[in-house]
Amino acid sequence: MEDLNSFSRRDFLRGVGALSAAGLTLWAGGCESCKRQIQQRPTRRNIANLPANDPVIQAYKDAVAAMKALPASDGRNWTKQAEIHQNKCVHSNWWFLPWHRAYLFYFERICRQLSGYNDFALPYWNWTSSPSIPAPFWGAGNPLLNTTRTATQASVANSSMVGSATITNILNQTNFFLFASDQATTQQEFAGYGMLEGTPHNYIHGFVGGDMGAFMSPLDPVFWCHHNMIDCLWVDWNINRGNPNTNDPNWANFQFADFVDETGAPVTVQAIITVLYPIFSYQFEACGPTTLTAKISDRVQLEKFLREGAPAKLEFVKRFELRQSLTAELQKPASGSIKIEPEAFRSVLESAGKDKAVLTVDEVDVPEKQDVFVRVFINKPDASSQTSLDDPHYAGSFAFFCCPSESSMKGHEGMAATGRPKAGYLVDLTPTLQKLNQGGSLSGGQLDVTLVPVPFDERPPTTQRLTIGRLEVGVARF
Ligand SMILES: [Cu+2]
């Protein structure tokens, strides 16, 4: 703390980690210039709000061109940056959000350094309000173009995956694991997709396609703006809506030793540090379907809330499973019936009840081409891709995002023989079960789960069938 007053902006940004480790609260210190720097921290803006000649867009182009021109021996080299993701990326577990936040944090600093534009803040692609790949990513000779994309400038992302209603539903989740993906013990374990990762995140990767559809996705400049939107939604959930992250020390203390800073030097980031970036290092132009400001307005209190988190658990007091291999085809959805004890769901069905019903669609063989997504219906065996999403039986959707090749997946746990994971996807059934109960169409000792594969958009999909190994519905007590 003693040298806070002499911090330059860069030192300050670099020092977030050290400050945190010392357990200090910046606001309580006497560093007026630090406070000014924090208040004036760069704003990450919606790329749709930037004119084509905006210096942020120009700086992004300059930075990408400069990174592509660096030798492969330099960790800031464009392909080297993408290889960090290929080799060390975190998916389908609770470090998904902090890992990608740190990855973007250092990428943004590299862009600042290499573009020479000191006010550079990475823009985000808000696919909820702008469901097509934005104009700055197109045009021959543009460093932001990636010619491997399968989406065109006219392709429109499916609103059931990225639209306001879906995103609002995800942001309304108060459970950390359902929102942010499931608990794991190793960095690259596929533990289970939460709703933010499994739905809009995965979907956009496959929707853009080409490099974006696999783990070298950061080769497409749109990757960084896509993940920036994910980061912004985490801020919305965590800071604006005031939902705590987990306080599990295994989550908070985990170290990511994967990144390089703007000089190309390796850096190690502790997961808990990343929760402070949005209050110290950058801020966002509002990206959620509802414009909100921080729930805790007092800065000291907000910092405390972020540092401390809260206990989070996704423990099932009752679970019912169907262990049976199901095959869902494009024109032929799969249905499975899970035998349940209706009594166990009583507290889920009470609107003020504390319990939730969570479906795990488990041991799904990720298809080789991830060009379909899956809609989940309850007690509607005749559901199809034409069934309205306003149908009360509709419970949610998930998409796939995976892997380049077997060899690059060696660090990941939970692989199938295909080299792709057998992943699990979490879907909160509570609102659907409550609706069905009110309508009198929930009765008896079973729940029918229907899984409907749907093509990404008008492009004809390669994937014809999906196999699912297990369905489980659990009653979770929060
Ligand atoms: Cu991603």
What does this molecule look like?
This protein has 478 residues and is α+β, with helices and mostly antiparallel strands. It has two domains: 41-308, Orthogonal Bundle (di-copper center containing domain from catechol oxidase), CATH 1.10.1280.10; 317-477, Jelly Rolls (Sandwich). Helices cover 31% and strands 19% of the residues. It has a four-stranded antiparallel sheet. The radius of gyration is 22 Å and the shape is globular. The chain starts with 8 loop residues before the first helix and ends with a strand. The structure holds copper (II) ion. Copper (II) ion binds at residues 201, 205, 227.
What is the gist of this entry?
The chain is an alpha+beta fold and 478 residues long.
Number of domains: 2
Q: Which blocks of ≥5 consecutive residues have pLDDT under 50?
A: 1-15, 17-24, 405-410
C-alpha geometry: globular
Number of strands: 12
* CATH structural class of the largest domain: Mainly Alpha
Report the radius of gyration as a whole number of Å.
22 Å
Our measurement of the CA-to-CA distance between the termini, rounded to an integer number of angstroms, reads 39 Å
**Which bin fits the share of residues in helices?**
25-40%
CATH fold group of the largest domain: di-copper center containing domain from catechol oxidase
The description of the largest β-sheet is: 4 strands, antiparallel
Instruction: Give me the secondary-structure category.
Output: alpha+beta
What topology, given as strand order, has the largest sheet?
Answer: 5-12-7-10
H/I helix tally = 16
> Could you tell me which ligands this complex binds, including any ions or cofactors?
copper (II) ion
DSSP strand content: 15-25%
User: What is the N-to-C order of secondary-structure elements (H for helix, E for strand)?
Assistant: HHHEHHHHHHHHHEEHEHEEHEEEEHEE
The CATH superfamily of the largest domain is known as Di-copper center containing domain from catechol oxidase
